[in-house]
Design a protein that fits this description.
heterodimer, A: 130 residues, OB fold (Dihydrolipoamide Acetyltransferase, E2P), 2 domains, four-stranded antiparallel β-sheet, 1 helix, globular, B: alpha+beta, Cyclophilin, six-stranded antiparallel β-sheet, 5 helices
Chain lengths: 130, 323
């Protein structure tokens, strides 16, 4: 299970107002518990204003805003972004991993250059709530 | 299982090819872009040479009759699954009823649709490739038609990661000469029988890929290659990559569906490691040729292999990390 999937699970727990989840699979066990305070688990960092959402990198690599075979960026500033929409690629060597938006909104700003080296959980785009 | 929706032309089932039957007059066939086939299969966890569908004409549309993971590799075509865009060189999970559409490519000329496990057609003489001339292999020995149903060997919901891509070979293994896509060429048996200025012009000039180019061969257009004296040669064995020069001096490069013998003088051979580049050069585009040695030709094949090994290692790591 990837960090991004765990993050997504945490978001769903919060949305469904569930206290936690316990997942067992061969070779792995995951226990998620929501703390009682409003912040919840890893999901929503407190620094964000309510009308803004930051998109964060799912791992280490080079963040690409466009596909190497295409000139156009995946999303342009000002355009609407749906949840689950492909907004960037994380390039690790010859591998391209999809970076999908965890939120819906209008792309307000791109915070990193195309091709920049990023780590896990770095904010790279800012969405304004519609 | 997929069903072909578009009235398509010239899409065929291809694997790496049918080797060892040239002596019976059976050409090799096989994918025009071996790297694209290998990468598409690699992303799906298939053997690198598993059979796939080679698509040279667009738009191409199929409906998934059942759940099946797939990958689209080769030409950077405008692909979408039920309207959701798919990046080039990408693997995805299709659900029953979904429609995959491949639009006109922005670069390259042949796309490959690989299915989980590989395309399930009978193996004939050790290969699933379509032998168009002999009308065997592939699906009923012919190009695909609207309404054809093609089965995958491992349909269903894939347990492997199926939402990622790889950087295309044209970016990973670029080869340009003065900004024009280039291929390396070994001089062949009759090379010395052509005029010095013709030989010089061959390496220095740009060559246009004419409309008389297909899986059998590419006819090129450029400064005529003229012999020192007229040549009459008996038919002899030839292989994909061989550059023949008929009267008139406009060369023909034999491609994967080449017949196994021919009698035109041989000027050179596009090296095996670079045949994929020619397979992706669109009709009407220009290419250049770079002279190389036998040792360089072998090293180039090793470079391709190293690239595939590197991608395979990363895909394996990604699988481990996704568990």
């Amino acid at each position: 299970m990837t960090n991004q999937e765990i993050r997504q699970l945490a978001v769903w727990l919060k949305e469904a107002d569930l206290a936690g989840a316990h997942i067992c699979r061969p070779g792995m066990q995951l226990l998620l518990k929501r703390s009682s305070d409003a912040g919840g688990v890893a999901a929503a960092p407190p620094v964000e204003a309510a009308h803004e959402q930051l998109l964060k990198t799912p791992g280490l690599g080079h963040l690409r805003l466009s596909h190497p075979d295409h000139r156009e960026v995946l999303v342009t500033v000002g355009s609407l972004v749906e949840r689950g929409q492909l907004v960037a690629f994380l390039q690790v060597g010859e591998l391209l991993l999809p970076v999908r938006s965890q939120h819906a909104g209008r792309l307000a700003a791109v915070l990193t250059e195309c091709g920049a080296t990023v780590g896990y959980g770095e904010a790279f785009m800012r969405l304004a709530a519609e | 299982m997929i069903e072909v929706l578009s009235t398509t032309a010239l899409a065929t089932v291809q694997d790496f090819g049918r080797f060892g039957s040239l002596g019976y007059g059976v050409g090799t066939s096989g994918a025009m872009d071996h790297l694209a086939l290998a990468l598409g299969n690699l992303m799906l966890g298939n053997p690198e040479g598993a059979a796939a569908i080679e698509i040279p004409m667009f738009t191409f549309e199929v409906r998934f009759v059942q759940d099946c993971a797939f990958a689209v590799s080769g030409a950077a075509c405008d692909a979408s699954l039920d309207g959701q865009p798919l990046p080039p060189y990408w693997v995805a999970q299709a659900r029953e009823g979904q429609v995959l559409s491949l639009g006109y490519p922005t670069s390259g000329s042949r796309a490959y649709l690989c299915l989980a496990g590989g395309v399930d057609v009978p193996s004939v003489l050790g290969s699933r490739s379509t032998q168009l001339r002999g009308e065997f292999g592939g699906l009923h020995g012919r190009a695909l038609q609207q309404g054809d149903r093609i089965a995958a060997l491992r349909p269903g919901v894939s347990k492997l990661p199926s939402d990622f891509g790889v950087v295309s070979p044209s970016h990973a293994l670029p080869l340009l000469c003065d900004g024009v896509p280039a291929m390396r060429v070994l001089p062949a048996a009759e090379y010395d029988c052509f005029l010095d200025e013709s030989r010089a012009a061959f390496w220095a000039g740009e060559w246009k890929i004419t409309t008389q180019s297909n899986r059998y061969g590419y006819r090129l257009e450029g400064a005529p290659i003229l012999p020192k004296a007229p040549m009459e040669i008996r038919s002899h064995g030839i292989v994909p990559g061989v550059i023949q020069v008929p009267h008139g001096g406009q060369p023909i490069i034999q491609m994967r569906d080449a017949q196994p013998s021919g009698g035109y003088p041989k000027f050179g051979t596009v090296i095996e490691a670079d045949l994929w580049r020619l397979g992706q050069a669109p009709i009407g585009s220009k290419v250049r040729f770079v002279e190389c040695s036998y040792a360089e030709a072998v090293a180039a094949l090793e470079d391709n292999q190293r690239y595939l090994v590197q991608v395979r290692r990363l895909v394996d790591l990604h699988r481990l990390a996704s568990h």
